[in-house]
Write a structure and sequence with these properties.
heterodimer; A: mainly alpha; 2 strands; 74% helix; globular; B: alpha/beta; Rossmann fold; 2 domains; 8-stranded mixed sheet; 12 helices; 43% helix; signal (chain B); BCAA_transport (chain B); transport (chain B); Peripla_BP_I (chain B)
């Protein structure tokens, strides 16, 4: 039981770390530019498809990973310059409409290029196999690698925001965009860079997750919903909130699916315990979100509006 | 001179009456063409349209719409098709939760519904309807065969897993109905779930000697990949949906050797099936899946009824459908009393032919199998 519990904790951590890669880009774009980007999930899909296509073509997952970063960043930069730039001054409803249109364009475009059937993408040889974790369970090396990679990216992102000149500008842009424009900073370029950075993180998450799931058109939307839950819990615009929110959602979802059916078995027969437990488990993160919003209406680390 | 004119007019009237005798039939196809379940709907559509194209019957028109795997959209589409498109027959729905939202109200409005896939138990027993035909199966069928296979293969502790929606419940019930061993664990996952790490950990800890899983479409791909990566080597058993042609390529070699149960396979030995597999491959450049076979049979059933009766004469048309007088890719095809098929169900194994993964029949699990709900249907 201990090893199973530990394994589920790792699973929760892994799902939380992947969510953070998605949510950080989303919250960054919202915080700096005040833009609701529904097409963030499409950039995740772009990353997964780029990785699968390049990995299939060259036989190397690592080249695929590089391709996913580049393709998603490029797609992000292009989208920002062609479409998003016109939306900053509009209200949120226009942004939602336009970025929803982008979802449809990306989905149909991907279907047009790659067809409707899922692509093949597997873990690289070097990271396949399992290791024994304390308690005796086997745990896939690749999932551990995802956790480590995700944590490194998270640390890098915090350093970038907190310690570098670009980070200072991003934070300044969040606080007062007229002021930094007046100080002679090229705000257009800053926005493009931030958007491309968020897109690259989403693309990276897509490539990682694509190796364990189905690389298919529309794969971004379910993750997008979770990423929105995360940034609402964490407080919109806060990277720290996104990290805490991601881990909270990852752990809640995994442990809920694992523990709730077991917990209900104390009160019901096994069949109904499973049914009730799994039904409740799928609602659990939304219940957590409602609770957080009830106690802290602007999220855990949100600034008071 | 006047006499000639009258004769010509009479002849023309006769000719026109002759042409009008074959009432055109309009079919509304609501199926999943986008999102994670798109592969299934596209296959069903392509199979259906292949039969339509081969028949080349000018009286048959088909309207196709994408339900996006969302019940509310499916309901809107059905309303639109019935009210403004004025279709005579509806078909195409892949997912049981969508079928439950659309079928009861459509058949109540005197439209025929021919199912290319989803056939929830609710519509087979007390909720059966004279205008509802399932060409594919009743949801439990393939899972019942999997239960039968697990028993005959000597498994005693099976872990069972299915998504939490009507077909998932039917799946687990069907499996248990024919499985004599113990169930060592039972899990309902979220429909559309993509990460199965938590469930795989439970499987590993359960001490099961086999795993039965029903996860159609992208869910099956995600589970199979993660299962292979996890290093758990407990044998898997599934219905055909978990290991179908459309998803094998994305799973890769991890699927080889896994047993699954199906009422169709590309190697069923009859001329109709051979021609179907060949023409489907020539038309679309890929092997047909089980959903494509259901679509193909559904269209041929409809065409056979159109040849016998006028769709506006509902009773005659219904009798013509019931007769099921067409060549099925499954070989024999008959409807039971609740208008669900009575059929053989095979055990298949995933094999690699050249560099293409596909399924091969290795035995028969159930012969002339009818569903468990037929006796509850009062029709």
């Amino acid at each position: 039981m201990f090893s199973l519990f530990l394994e589920q904790l790792l699973n929760g951590l892994q799902s939380g770390v992947m969510l953070f890669l998605m949510a950080s880009g989303l919250t960054l774009v919202f915080g700096v530019m005040g833009l609701i980007n529904l097409a963030h999930g499409s950039l995740y899909m772009v990353g997964a498809f780029a990785c699968a296509a390049v990995a299939a073509w060259t036989g190397s997952f690592w080249l695929g990973l590089v391709a996913s970063l580049m393709a998603a960043a490029l797609a992000g930069a292009l989208v920002e310059m062609l479409v998003i730039r016109r939306l900053y001054k509009r209200d949120h409803l226009d942004q939602v409409l336009a970025t929803f249109a982008l979802i449809l364009i990306f989905s149909e475009g991907t279907r047009w290029i790659f067809g409707s059937f899922p692509l093949f993408l597997n873990v690289p040889e070097a990271l396949s196999g399992t290791v024994t974790i304390p308690g005796g369970s086997q745990y896939p090396i690749f999932r551990l690698a995802i956790i480590v990679a995700g944590l490194i990216v998270a640390a890098g992102l915090f350093a970038l925001i907190g310690k570098t000149r670009l980070g200072t500008r991003i934070r300044a842009g969040e606080a007062d965009r007229e002021m930094i424009a007046a100080l002679g900073i090229n705000i257009d370029r800053l926005y493009t860079v931030v958007f491309a950075l968020g897109a690259a993180l989403a693309g990276l998450a897509g490539a990682f997750v694509g190796t364990t799931q189905s690389v298919q058109v529309g794969m971004g939307e379910p993750v997008l919903i979770l990423a929105f839950v995360v940034i609402v819990i964490g407080g919109i615009g806060s990277i720290k909130g996104a990290l805490i929110g991601s881990l909270l959602v990852g752990f809640t979802d995994t442990m809920g699916r694992f523990l709730l059916p077991i917990g209900f078995e104390a009160f019901f027969d096994p069949a109904s315990a499973t049914a009730i437990g799994s039904a409740l488990a799928s609602m659990l993160i939304y219940i957590v979100m409602a609770l957080v919003l009830f106690l802290r209406p602007s999220g855990l680390f949100g600034t008071e509006a | 001179m006047k006499g000639t004119k009258t004769t010509i007019a009479a002849l023309a009237a006769l000719l026109m009456a002759g042409a009008a005798q074959a009432e055109p039939v309009k079919v509304g196809m609501i199926t999943t063409l986008s999102g994670g379940g798109a592969g299934l709907g596209i296959d069903a559509r392509d199979g259906f349209m292949l039969a339509v194209k081969q028949a080349n019957n000018p009286d048959l028109t088909v309207v196709i719409e994408d339900d996006q795997q969302k019940p509310d959209i499916a309901v809107q589409l059905a309303d639109k098709m019935i009210q403004s498109e004025k279709v005579d027959v509806l078909t195409g729905i892949i997912w049981s939760n969508l079928a439950m939202a659309v079928v009861p109200s459509a058949v109540a409005q005197d439209k025929f519904y021919l199912s290319v896939n989803a056939a929830p138990s609710q519509l087979a027993g007390k909720g059966c309807n004279k205008n509802y035909f399932s060409v594919s199966y009743q949801n439990d069928n393939l899972h019942e065969a999997a239960g039968g296979y697990a028993t005959s293969a000597g498994y005693e502790k099976t872990f069972v897993m299915a998504p939490n929606y009507p077909a998932g419940k039917d799946s687990i019930n069907g499996f248990k109905r024919f499985y004599l061993g113990d169930v060592s664990g039972e899990v309902y996952t979220k429909l559309g779930q993509t990460d199965y790490a938590a469930e795989i950990a439970q499987i590993r800890a359960s001490g099961a000697d086999s795993v039965f899983f029903f996860l159609p479409g992208g869910m099956g791909i995600a589970f199979m990949k993660q299962y292979a990566q996890s290093g758990v080597d407990i044998p898997l058993i599934g219905p055909a949906f978990s290991l179908d042609q459309g998803i094998l390529g994305a799973i890769g070699d991890a699927a080889i050797g896994i047993k699954n149960t199906a009422n169709w396979s590309k190697d069923i030995d009859n001329d109709t099936n051979k021609a179907f597999v060949e023409t489907f491959q020539a038309e679309y450049g890929r092997l047909p899946s089980i959903y494509a076979s259901y679509g193909f049979d559904t269209a041929n059933l409809l065409l056979s009824a159109m040849g016998k009766a006028d769709v506006k004469d509902a009773d005659a048309f219904r009798d013509a459908l019931r007769a099921a007088d067409f060549n099925s890719v499954r070989g024999k095809f008959i409807f039971g009393p609740n208008q669900h098929p009575i059929q053989d169900i095979y055990v298949r194994e995933v094999v690699k032919e050249g560099d293409v993964l596909t399924n091969k029949i290795i035995g028969t699990a159930l012969i002339d199998h009818a569903d468990a709900y037929a006796s509850e249907c009062a029709m």
